[in-house]
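User: Please work through this fold.
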Amino acid sequence: MARSLILAPALGALLLAACGDNNAQTPQPPMDEAESTAPLPDQPLVGAGWSMVSSGEGVALRLEEGGELIAALACMRNPAGLRVESDSFQPVMSEDRFTVGAGDEAYALAADLEAGRERGVEASGEIPADLLDRIEAGEEIAFNYGAQNLGPFPAIPEADRAAFAAECRETAG
């Protein structure tokens, strides 16, 4: 009998804890910001623009707004390859696929999570000839990294598209 009196309060407390308030919601852990969509600007990218930069290392198309890098595509020399980067994306250690979209086609690149960037994500891969054709034709460009998306962005100015595609083809051999 004494044993029942000692166990009864403990069992009662366990039952109450297990049942709880059925109407109370279980708190959800905060969403990992890196798994969310990249923040969209408050307004359309009115001041954003594409520019082309060429050097001994390669040629790049950069989309910037107010001096901030949104995204860049570069054909690098030695070794030849495509490098893409965006300061708008947050690195996700479990995500190694960075996709560039041109029109209705997607091109997958390997994200470099060890790049040591202060912010953003970069990726690289081979230079797809079809991507160069689509850029030169003026198709819209978009970027995807995990659950984060940027774009589609308007076409790159015609003179820059042609020069970029020509230098990339020369680099690719």
User: Anything to note?
Assistant: The first strand starts at residue 49 and ends at 55. The beta strands are 49-55, 58-65, 68-76, 81-86, 97-102, 105-111, 121-125, 141-145, 148-153. The helical segments are 2-19, 129-136, 158-172. The chain has three helices and nine strands.
